[in-house]
Amino acid sequence: MTAQTFQTIAARPAPVASEGVVPWIRNNLFGDWLTGLMTLLIGAVLLYLIPQLLSWALFRASWLPDYEACKVQGVGACWGVIAEKHRLILFGRYPFEEQWRPLVATLSMLGLLAVSCTRAFWRRWLVILWLVVLALFFTLMAGNVLGLSKVETDRWGGLPLTILLASLSMVAAFPIALVVALGRRSNLPAIKTFCSIYVELIRGVPLISVLFMASFMFPLFMPQGFTIDVLIRVLVGITLFSAAYMAEVIRGGLQAIPKGQIEAAATLGLSYWQTQRKIVLPQALAMVVPSIMNNFISTFKDTSLVTIVSLYELTGALSMALNSDSKWRPFMIEGYIFIAMIYFIFCFSMSRYSIWVEKQVNRGTRR
């Protein structure tokens, strides 16, 4: 028998860490010489600009609602304009002594949205909760009941109006978009043609045109003495506009479903609506969650366009607050930074929620 000789295997280098801060920096900021060079250049620019920005925004800023203090030589940002005008920016032309009503209405709406985004509360009673909160919102805002003074809708403004338009248009646009997307894939020519005309007509014009038509042109076609509140007309216009874009997003998800699954469902004897509800729509909507959330974020920001029809939401209320007082007008940039932060908080929250929803609906496909 031949004796076997065993040789020791040379030691291999330790595996390189692929997770953590240092590996992320190495892979994303210094992956090659060009990436490293751009990282250093951008870093140098930021090191030059950030101290100046912090000095202007924080260290040399004026925080008191004192116009004279903001005029002192060497003073940075004048955040006193926010302290002075914040109620007018947040609540618009709503009566000053009654502004607790839009505050309570806005907090109740935000609480409802938070509950609606929590999976533990996805129950049938959530629909009833929506109806109750909406009734409370309109009761507080409009008044004329329970001893509350009446406030016309043209005096609603600021953050409550932005939240109302964005939330209701998003909720109402989704079922419309779902029906239109299914209609565009229908085998019935009349339904398919009607849905296609609606989508192409809405997508062919900007939102400003839709708001202008809803506010100024639509009343001309109404019978003499019959009017619809401008807030309702604007809300319908934003909803129809958002639904047209969302319908195309959902239709893209429907087209991604293999035809074999639909044929298999027909073989099992499932009806059209059973196939859509149990097989097609759950998969299609899961595929387009990021795109749907992009549409929601876009709708939230597009509410700023309602100023064209004299509804002063957040940005419109800011312009009205500063243009009506000439001494604070030079500090408009601080006001826009303030409302930009509000928009960022809401949009960033929706973006992070979209990531969470995407992980939840794709949990079954992980490997």
Structure description:
The chain is an all-alpha fold. It has a domain at 80-94 and 151-365: Orthogonal Bundle (MetI-like fold), CATH 1.10.3720.10. It has 15 helices and one strand, in the order αααααααααααααβαα. Helix 4 (80-91) crosses helix 7.
Defining traits:
single chain; 367 residues; mainly alpha; MetI-like fold; 1% strand
Second rung of CATH, namely the architecture of the domain at 80-94 and 151-365: Orthogonal Bundle
**CATH homologous superfamily designation of the domain at 80-94 and 151-365:** MetI-like
Strand content is under 5%
Order of helices and strands: HHHHHHHHHHHHHEHH
How far do the termini sit from each other? 49 Å
Total number of helices = 15
Give the radius of gyration: 28 Å
- What is the approximate shape? flat
Largest sheet: none
Which regions contain 5 or more consecutive residues with pLDDT less than 50? none
Q: What top-tier CATH class of the domain at 80-94 and 151-365 fits best? A: Mainly Alpha
Structural class: mainly alpha
Proportion of helical residues: 55-70%
Tell how many strands the DSSP assignment holds: 1
Mean pLDDT: 86
Would you tell me which CATH topology of the domain at 80-94 and 151-365 applies? MetI-like fold
